[in-house]
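Long-time lurker. I teach an intro course on protein structure, and each term I like to show students one example going from raw sequence to a predicted 3D structure in token notation. This year I'd like something fresh instead of my usual example. Would anyone be willing to generate the tokens for the chain below so I can use it in lecture? Attribution to the forum is fine with me.
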Amino acid sequence: MEKAGTDEGGGRGAAGGKAECRMESIRHHDGDGAVAIAVDALPALDGELVVDVASRSALADDDGHAARHLPLAVLRPGSVADVAAMLRFAAEHGLRAAPRGQGHATGGQARVPDRIVIDMRTLDTVHKVLPDRVVVDAGARWRDVLTATTPAGLTPPVLTDCVELTVGGTLAVGGVGGTSHLHGLQTDNVLELEVVTGDGRVRTCSPNYDRPLFEAALAGLGQCVVIVRATLRLVPARSRVRRHRLRYADPHRFLVAQRRLVTHHRFDHVSGRAVPDERGGWRYVVEAARFHTPPSSPEDPAAWDDVVPWDGDVETDDLSYVDFVTRESPGAAGWPPARSAHPWLGGFLPDVRAEEVVVDVLARVSREELGEGGRVVLYPTTTDRFNTPLFRMPGGPVVVHFALLRTTSPDDADALARIASANHYFAERVREAGGAVYPHGTMSFTRDDWQAHFGPVWPRFAAAKVRYDPRHVLTSGQRIFLS
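-- Reply from a regular --
Happy to contribute to a lecture. Here you go:
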């Protein structure tokens, strides 16, 4: 194995032997005290394993900035084989590991002391674009996928608001967007996966081949496998988008209007927000968009039939498709400041209880508490195209996606504590209404909470954990399978 020196702690991997390694061991705590593992026991790598403080500190927290946990080491894989070798090593030596993409999770999902962080950003290749699919490494961002597919007139059918997320990161959670009423979740548009199980085996799975493994990976929160490569469905990408914004003064008319838009499938994209009113209340904005390629027209005279009358004029604009799907990326107008903490939390509400919960929760949120660049996402989606077993949501043909995307200073401990308390109330209201929390956010769940969250699929999920990660190596930060 090649050795590479570092400024503090050293590293190992294929670094060309440019410096002598000064790291003799790495240490972790197994409950009975510190245990040292000799460097010579580490596997040969195409990439590198680094333990210097700067590299570890850079991955010690996420966008939530709620707490920092310095990892034991950081793996920068140069290949899928590196991920497999490191997970086998972790299993053999009682270590834990967690994959990390761009760090956009907000609840410490990839954090736990004495674990190895697998920095998936080094596996970011878009391998091939075919007429109906794209093969891409899990560490690639959705923006990278778009860059490869849109020149061929193709796009993934579902994109989240932020395309800077990694493919593997969203597939481990679900991935909902404004086109989900037509195409389901991002996880519902996966044709095949390459994964590494918790015991270090590289496996391929799909709906038709090793389906139990496939279903344990998608929306499995990284508990059973590390997703390393995905084959994703593509659909034609229209070149232009005509976007309409409708404004409502009350949540009832707003939700009724959105419900009709998504159930009638009259628009390609439907989403919405609640916006703080200057007088202290809330206003509601529907965003409905139709994709088209000139000379075809985006207009449909029947599109607004039976839609509840809105307040004022419709605001309409035209954008390129790429500008539209990247409009919410960091750095865009209205996006939270780069250094802010994002203790976000969202969920899915049953349609019949949505208005009640939204009114109650928003009555407790002020413009100031939402924070600079903070937003409230609120829109229904039909569920007939949702087919990912581990993705939890209420029953019924329509559910309402409701998310509080607050921001605050990462240095304001009091504000973070208040938001944590508010998030707890939000989660309880969602669950009491028969809804489900979207588990990428900032929340504090016990094992019992997780069991209640997964409900009827918990036994299947727990069995998959035993089968694919028997030594509980993977992603223990969420404490799903820990007491």
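Some talking points for your students: DSSP finds 13 helices and 23 strands in the chain. The first strand starts at residue 3 and ends at 4.
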